[in-house]
Design brief:
Blueprint: E1 4-6, E2 15-17, H1 27-49, H2 59-71, H3 76-80, E3 89-92, H4 100-104, E4 109-112, H5 114-125
Antiparallel strand pairs: 1-2, 3-4
């Protein structure tokens, strides 16, 4: 018997298998709703912090990021815990706070999976109810 949870569509109480977000009746509407909410979230973030290029993560950073992930394909935090997880994000070990030297320092980078990177960023930037611990400096 599969594990079940409730359909994520507001007001629906239909059980669906674990790993499935919406029941058949709400699948199309739910995916459209998710896309609309994500677009609004992205828009608010860009208004608040600027685009990734404006924050210093343009073409040069994308090339450096790709090269770093080729050399470091696994998440460092997961590896420390005995797990093997593909890295998806490149993190600044010491927050650069707008310092270009620290931003581009290869030795200040580590490969992380998205989950580990999100947790570290939340701790440093004040996400998930934490107080902000660093400025909004840009490289």
């Amino acid at each position: 018997m599969p594990l079940l949870h409730i359909c994520a569509y507001p007001g629906c109480h239909t059980p669906v298998p674990l790993g499935v977000r919406y029941c058949r009746r709400h699948e199309e509407k739910g995916e459209k709703r998710d896309a609309r909410l994500k677009a609004a979230r992205d828009r608010r973030r860009t208004e608040r912090t600027g685009s990734s290029t404006e924050r210093g993560y343009g073409y040069s950073w994308q090339k450096r990021r790709a090269a770093f992930l080729r050399e470091h394909p696994l998440c460092e935090e997961c590896r420390k815990r005995g797990r093997i997880t593909p890295a998806t994000d490149v993190d600044h070990i010491r927050p650069h706070k707008g310092d270009p030297e620290l931003f581009w320092d290869w030795d200040n980078l580590q490969a992380l999976c998205h989950e580990c990177h999100s947790k570290k960023t939340a701790r440093e930037d004040g996400g998930f109810g934490n107080g902000s611990r660093r400025g909004s400096g840009r490289p």
